[in-house]
Each structure stands twice: as structure tokens, then as C-alpha cells.
Design a protein that fits this description.
The chain is of the alpha/beta class. It has helices at 35-47, 75-84, 102-116, 130-135, 144-163, 220-229, 240-256, 278-290, 294-305, 330-343, 347-354, 367-379, 395-410, 423-427, 435-440; strands at 7-11, 52-55, 90-96, 120-125, 170-173, 178-180, 190-191, 196-197, 212-215, 232-235, 265-274, 361-365, 385-390. The two termini are 36 Å apart.
């Protein structure tokens, strides 16, 4: 393969993308809190030479715990176990800048990078929902602009901590008794609006220099954070045109920070429901739909739009002029409205189109259909790759690996085998230079 290369991640959403995935025949209802489930899915993805597995995180119960599995296990711990059972696949974990401190996050991800031999990535999020706020002593979410201001400073501090020990600080000379060269270990002495962190870091610089920085944000503040710091961005566009506009805007913003266009990858969210024929795929889609209570899907849609479910008429279009949520959730809000408007959907039709989800695009079809769609978006520049969400795990991923990946390989779009062992290597990202070493040259 030469030139630009397609990237594929697997987003391990408990039992699958569909809220009813755990109810499907052959599914394990305990999968969402069984680490062996995550190990198994990661091994399947590694067999398909995927770039990475990705785990979301939420430190609260914020959905119908009586109906569906929730994101619950702490992702870096799960991925440390996954690292021990895999050799190549990257490990991207989510950690919030709103309810953590820079030093412990720098330490956690540096440790994962060392433990995995350079396969770690950090998905940088700000947390906006009330349920998480109350678990950290707050009665309301932190304001949107304040969260992103904090996130920017937080990320800069984490990067400074990773850089605070030079590559050759470790000596380990048993004969002389010299273990570390203190002249190559630097306090960062950070004092900012949100944080005061002296440093230096107590862990050697990570194998990748920095674990790969990932972000997802559709708001203006989110895009600015991504443009300054992110190396891969998860997007949630419902159409090719929206995705292309997003990619162009993100790279334009990145250029203002002195970054090149190829220093940031756009990975579009993509849910898949695959059948050997289109009829079979649609039958599977309908089976999953029928297992989701209508009142649940209505409440979930209303939550994305931050409306009272009673204000939505199932057989009418969405109300006009729904205001942008003040405290976040802009990515899925915009994607959902765009889908409803483009397709002219009633509320009931929108619920069906979302398949119980919150705004990610869904392909329903054959392996050929899925490969065709991926190729169109990739070749057209709307995405550098995809954050995949199969309907049911592990089955939906097995079908993708066994039937879609060979088509992508045959077309010269996707790797035949891993060529390296680090996540940066898989993604084609440069290793950040240590600024202290650069200054000494």
C-alpha cells in the first residue's frame, strides 16, 4: 500500500451499538462488566489489523439502568488487561478533564503506554451532565466555556509533564551507582488559572513521547481544543457534505496553531448493521428496533435535544428553532437535527432512523455496501477513517473483520498486516520531540 491509508477503530459500546444488543440471541447480558468480553473483542479487532480499540467513560448512571447496559468499568484498567492479551492494537481510553487532575491523568496514561509498549491514546473529554456533576460534589454542570478553558490548560499541563523527563535521563549504571541524571529531569512549575503543578513527572517519558491525543467535539470551543491539541478527532456527521465541511474547518483551525494538515486525523463515527443480503440486514435492524421500548427511545431523543419528551409529537416533525443546549452535547444535537431535516422525518421516523442511538450515522446493508460507503467517504476526504460501532458485539465485529476488511484490502485501502507496534505508527503520526532536548541542540 502506498499513499494515504484508511484507519479503523472499534468503539466497544458494551454489548453493541444498539441499546437492545444484550437481548439478542447469543449475546451475554453480563458483557458490559466482564473484562473478558473486552479482551475478546480486542483480539477480533487485532485479527482484522484495526488501529485501536476505544472505550468511552462516564462516572455516573445516566441512562435507564433497568433497561440497558451502561458504561461502567474504568477504561484504563480494562485496557491494561487488554494490553496483556494483545500485541499490536492501540488502546484509546477516555478521561475527563472536568473531574480529574492533570498529574494523575498524565501518570495513568504514561503507565498504560509503558505497559503496552507504546499503544496508548487519551480521549480528552469535558463532562457536561448533571449526574456526573453530583458525583463530584457539584449541584450543576460546569459552564461550557469554563469546561473547555480548563480542558485546554489541563491538556497543556499533561503534555508538559510527559516532557519533563528527557529521553536519556535514565542512566542505570550499577558500577557507578548513578541511576538518573537529575539535570535531565525538569520541574514544569506551572501556575495557571485552573491548576498549579510543580512537577516533574515521576515516570520516564512514555514510549510514544506522548500517548496519542484524541478528542471529539462539535461545538466551537470543542473544535478549538481539537485544533490546538488533538491528533485524531472523532466526528459524528450524518452526511458526506457535513463531514467534509467539518474536516476542512478543523484543519483550517489547526493551521492557526501552526500545525500541518496531516497532523490531525478525522475518524467518523459509523454504526453498522450487516447482513448477507440487504433484506437480511434490514430484518436484523427491525429485530433490534422491536426490542427497544418506544418510551425509552423517545426519552433518549429528548435528552439529546434537551427537551421534555411530552413536547414531542411522535407523528409530527421536530419543533422549529430548538435552541442549542447551553452546557454541551452539541455534536449529537447538531447531527440529530441535520438527519431529521435532511430526511424530512417525523419524531417517530427519526427514532427509527437513529436505531435507538444518539446521532451517529448507521449503515444497513451487505459487506459490499459497507465497503462502498467507507471508500466513498475516505477517498472523498470526508474522513481519514472510522470509529466503528457494530450493532451487536462480538458478532457484528466478526462479520466486519471477515467480510468487509477483505474487500477494503483488495481495493488497496487498508493494511494487509501491521507494520509497527505503536499506535502512532499505525496512525502515521510523528513522535513529539522533547522540547528540552531540542533546546540543547
Amino acid at each position: 500500500m502506498s499513499g494515504r491509508e484508511l484507519h479503523l477503530n472499534i468503539n466497544i459500546l458494551h454489548s453493541g451499538f444498539s441499546p437492545a444488543a444484550w437481548r439478542m440471541e447469543g449475546s451475554d447480558p453480563r458483557a458490559s462488566f466482564d473484562v473478558n468480553h473486552y479482551i475478546n473483542v480486542a483480539r477480533i479487532a487485532e485479527r482484522g489489523t484495526f488501529d485501536a480499540v476505544f472505550l468511552a467513560d462516564q462516572a455516573a448512571i445516566s441512562d435507564r439502568v433497568d433497561f440497558r447496559p451502561l458504561t461502567s468499568l474504568e477504561p484504563t484498567i480494562v485496557l491494561a488487561l487488554v494490553a496483556a492479551h494483545t500485541q499490536h492494537i492501540g488502546l484509546i481510553a477516555t478521561a475527563s478533564t472536568t473531574y480529574n487532575e492533570p498529574y494523575n491523568i498524565a501518570r495513568r496514561f504514561a503507565t498504560l503506554d509503558h505497559a503496552s509498549g507504546g499503544r496508548a491514546g487519551w480521549n480528552i473529554v469535558t463532562s457536561a451532565d448533571l449526574s456526573q456533576s453530583r458525583n463530584f460534589g457539584l449541584e450543576r454542570p460546569v459552564a461550557h466555556s469554563s469546561r473547555y478553558e480548563r480542558a485546554g490548560e489541563f491538556t497543556a499541563v499533561v503534555k508538559a509533564l510527559w516532557d519533563s523527563r528527557e529521553e536519556d535521563a535514565f542512566i542505570g549504571d550499577a558500577a557507578t551507582g548513578r541511576f538518573v541524571d537529575p539535570a535531565r529531569v525538569h520541574a514544569i512549575a506551572h501556575r495557571g488559572k485552573h491548576f498549579s503543578v510543580h512537577g516533574p513527572h515521576n515516570i520516564p517519558r512514555p514510549p510514544q513521547g506522548h500517548p496519542v491525543l484524541v478528542q471529539a467535539g462539535g461545538s466551537d470551543d470543542g473544535r478549538e481544543l481539537a485544533a490546538e491539541h488533538a491528533e485524531a478527532v472523532f466526528s459524528a456527521s450524518q452526511s458526506f457534505e457535513e463531514a467534509l465541511d467539518y474536516a476542512v474547518d478543523l484543519r483550517r483551525r489547526a493551521a492557526r496553531f501552526g500545525r500541518s494538515a496531516d497532523s490531525i486525523l478525522v475518524l467518523a463515527g459509523l454504526a453498522t448493521i450487516i447482513g448477507s443480503t440487504e433484506i437480511e440486514a434490514k430484518r436484523r435492524q427491525e429485530e433490534l428496533r422491536e426490542l427497544i421500548p418506544l418510551e425509552y427511545s423517545l426519552a433518549r431523543l429528548a435528552g439529546v435535544l434537551q427537551l421534555n419528551p411530552r413536547s414531542l409529537d411522535l407523528d409530527a416533525p421536530l419543533p422549529d428553532d430548538i435552541p442549542l443546549p447551553p452546557d454541551g452535547g452539541h455534536t449529537f444535537f447538531r447531527a440529530t437535527l441535520a438527519l431529521a431535516k435532511r430526511e424530512g422525518l417525523s419524531v417517530r421516523g427519526l427514532i427509527r432512523a437513529l436505531n435507538g442511538g444518539t446521532g451517529h450515522r448507521t449503515i444497513v446493508g451487505t459487506p459490499q455496501d459497507v465497503a462502498d460507503d467507507i471508500e466513498r467517504w475516505f477517498v472523498g476526504g470526508a474522513a481519514d477513517g472510522f470509529n466503528l460501532m457494530p450493532d451487536v458485539l462480538p458478532h457484528g465485529l466478526e462479520v466486519f473483520v471477515d467480510e468487509v476488511v477483505p474487500i477494503l484490502r483488495k481495493r488497496g485501502l487498508f493494511r494487509q498486516a501491521y507494520s509497527g507496534r505503536t499506535l502512532r505508527g499505525h496512525l502515521g503520526l510523528a513522535r513529539p520531540a522533547n522540547p528540552y532536548a531540542a533546546a540543547a541542540e
